[in-house]
Amino acid sequence: MPCAAAATAIYALMSLACAGAWSFNILLLCRFIQGIGVGGEMPVAATYISELSRARGRGRFFLLYEMIFPIGLMVTGQVGAVLVPLMGWQIMFLIGGIPGLLIALMLLRLPESPRWLIGKGRLAEAEAVVMRLEAASGKAGATAQGARAPATLPSQVPIPPRSRGRFGELLSPAYRSRTLIAWILWASAYLVANSLNNWLPTLYTTVYHLALPQALRAASMTNVAQVALVLLCAMVIDRTGRKYWLMGAFGSGAVLLGLLAFGGTQDVSWVIVLSTLSYGLIGSIAAVVYLYTPEIYPTRMRAIGTGVATSWLRIGSAIGPTLVGFMLGRGGVDSVFLMFAAVALVGLLAATRMIETRNLRLEEIAR
Cα–Cα–Cα angle for 210, 72, 257, nearest 5°? Predict the structure, then answer.
């Protein structure tokens, strides 16, 4: 976990630096470096949780963890609305930075993934971690006699070169299809979700002339919808499977966005309802791809595969606002929703080519 701790520390320190920034350029630089920390921590956390989860129920366990993100967005908006007028915008960076340093220290106390340790030939350490986990969960096998088992294993054994993951292997014949499909899922889901999240407040104020408080309340409903749908997804994902949830969410989202594109934008009430539901559906996909991507790779390349896939989150999020501006200039609001619907259909097509991973051990999936 040192990598996750280091990434979290970067995020936390840059958050504190943002609070003390004396110019816009310094704030921009600190935010850029802070983003590197966030981008480094998230794929490592997803990989770690996947490797510690048992096969049956892994989807529910992981998505309940993923709910922290939309809940955090929802709570942060309300906290900011109260504290920023009283204490200034810097308070939000302090709220993020100070706990972040404590979390970085806590991450250093977590055990390494046994799968990763085995891949490095550190068998005794892996067995010791398993014993700790069994003892913490109350497993009968975690006895005093069992606790001595790690001493019978070598601390280090030779490892073959194949146990070291390489970037090029992501596009090797064995994993090329999985990788390209995952990249399309990430790019399409986050292009739609983040573009909607960023654009809706402006849409409500500039096109529909809602007062700013009304517009912010309407836009905040998207996070409520995402929390509700991610919770529903967590409850059923190990029954429906990853593939069918993504197909259903992309397909339903495309239909709702298409309704907005073909006449649904005449009434702001319909825009609020349909865009909120669309965001909730596509937002649930954004959570499921964090579950799915670490599952499709072997341990030696799980972190690399997940980390590279999350870069398509950034690419989709960066391209989205540019496309929104271009489509607004060419065809108005309807064309923007049509573009979102088309991207969702691309995601649906990619989802039909996914492999199903529910209730399977990671070693079975990545053979």
Answer: 50
